[in-house]
Fold this protein.
Amino acid sequence: MQKKPWLWGLVLVLMISVASGCSGNGTQKGSDQTEGSQGGDGAKGAVELSFWYGWTGPEAAALEKIIAKWNAANPDIKVKGLSQSDYQKQLTAITGGNPPDIASNFGQDVVPWGERGAMMPLDDYIKKDGVDLSDYIAAALSSSQANGKTYALPIAMHTTMLFYNKDLLKEAGLDGPPQTISQLKEYITKLSVKENGGRLQRLGLWPGVDAFTFTNAFGGSYYDANAKQVTPDNAGVKSAINLAKGIWDQFGSEELDRFASGLGQYMSAQNPFFTGRYAMTIDGEWLPTFIKQFAPNLNYGIAPIPYDDANPNLKNPGNVTTSVFYIPKGVKNPDASWNFLKWLMEPAQMGEFTAALGNLPTRTSLISDPIYKDVPGFQEFLTYSQSPNLHSFPATSFANEYMTEFSDQYNAILRGKIGIDEGLKKVKDKIQPLVK
Amino acid sequence: MKPLAERTGYTRRQWHYFWLGLLFASPWIIGFLVFTVYPFFSSLYFSLTAYDLFNPPQWVGLDNYKQIMSDERFYKSINNTLFMAFISVPISLASSLVIALMLNFKVKGINFYRTIFYLPAVIPVVASALLWTWMLNPDFGLINMFLRAVGLPDPAWLMDPRYTKPSLILMGLWGSGAGALIFLAALQGVPQQYYEAAQVDGANGWHRFWRITIPALSPIILFQLIMGLIGAFQIFTESYILAGGKSVSGSIGGPDQSLLFYAVNLYQEAFMNLKMGYASALAWILFIIVMAITLVLLKTSRRWVYYGGE
């Protein structure tokens, strides 16, 4: 007992030495850095920008080629790319006060991060340099904007269409893809095959995937920005869920689970659409590239998402997600970051990048660009991306929680664990308090 | 003031060694303070705040804890985690004991068997989880091929919410070799004369197992039980891999959230929803639960754990 005060004294001394040790290190590192960049200054005052992007492999190589082009033309701003697909590292770097100068992310993270102050609003730059935002596809741009601020610019977008297996449709005596929702239901019934033992062998369309796409077919939306109300109980959302639930109940959870667990990997020759276990599927513009690679003999077609019979004005509906570039909060040289970002978003670079990746461009002026003529299946998607009925999930600071909660309840509804009204009310009760 | 040595009753020399010892231990002490003590208390502080990483934490008192009490995902994750803790841990404990007993036989090539059973323990969790997704494939996986061959039902392991957790338990059994190794070491420390004396008294194998082997192993059982429970409460990687990582919809809990474990939920709140304060509160509740279970085990262990020295 007598020894205790000494121990505490010791702890204190250690803590102080640790604290001072840390700060000592910090300053040293700081001065090292300035020295480093001064050394770089020797090469005619060049600024070095670090650029973190989430792509890897051949996609990263395509981006590096574009970066090299910039570096060759701009000796005063040298950009160094780093493939960094762990987005958590961006969080750590930004909070740690040592962020990359430009970084990529997914559209759904932009407003949650931006409104919390992790991304720099770009509006002043956009105004100053006269960037024409009206050239961007509205659904894509909207995923980076909230409350009058633009936190990032979308380099590429994704949307989905209906893929159908021509051979299987023909076999079932069906001529061409379904146009309307009621035709879609008919097709699913005709195309699904059970073997003698009652086990599902082929499915017309997997029911549980995408409520967001069909919500747009029924004119639904998830958020009323004017009233500041989340609207998961919207009639359009409900219709989308009812459509999926109808297909689900046709087969039942047990049968579908069994069927699903026997399906092959998505990015392989065993993809269920490639092997004919799905007769139709709703998938993105990257799928034709995969088909070319994994199932070159597949006889398939690409068609618009079927529209609601009662709402022919909502033809060509779809859900849009984006990949974006942004400038993190706390960068040392935002002007240089912006210069590079602006250049990267110019049609020439965006075209080169998206064509290499097989992603859709977000600028209307690129739609008829010949650079895409060799990308399989792209003409359909490029035309489709012009549809006014494409929307992205409403960009809000609580978008991630909203999507998670919605997906959870959507799943529970499909599985019959909860009624549709009750499930959607739960979503609303949980998310509405997050609206500020 | 009297010299230090006189005031404390220690000699100068003893003090000298004391400081010297501390000096040598200081890298660990500093590391402990910086990387354990400091994060420990700061997470307690953050748990009482709303903190999104980018803005300064806002003091909210016990709000996070109150909110957790009405959070459906919290209860779901607790249920899933408790299932793993109280079903999986005893099962894998029993299986590693059985393996250890088998590996304790003196047969030819025993070292080979010991290696084989221990091997899975050195394979990274990610790799073994990927391997098991193949084994558990309902159509062409090894497990169901066997089940079909003997006429048993062949479930859709990783997609049917009723079977996802049993799949994980099955995976865990494969890795029982690590626990078996510890049991094996303890088994070989049981004095042979006990068995010989019992045999003289006419005890059969069953008696010898329950009356000698189990009591002799009880400290190890307690240790493995506690470590297993702590591990079960932190299960993350297996679920993250088997549930397909982060899906497009943003949900990472597997079919019908049957693999939404405590750590998975915590990860999602912290790094996807950017609710660090809330996640810190979740972490503290986990800490309290694990602490309570460990204390209860240690308390009741006096009745069933025998230490050789006592």
Q: What stands out?
A: Confidence is low (pLDDT under 50) at residues 20-43 of chain A. The interface with chain B takes residues 2-3, 6, 10-11, 14-15, 17-18, 21-22, 88, 91, 94-95, 108, 112-113, 116-118, 254, 257-262, 329, 400-401, 403-404, 406-408, 410-412, 415, 417, 426 of chain A (CB under 8 Å). Chain A is about 45% helix and 15% strand. Residues 352 and 371 of chain A are 7 Å apart (CA to CA).
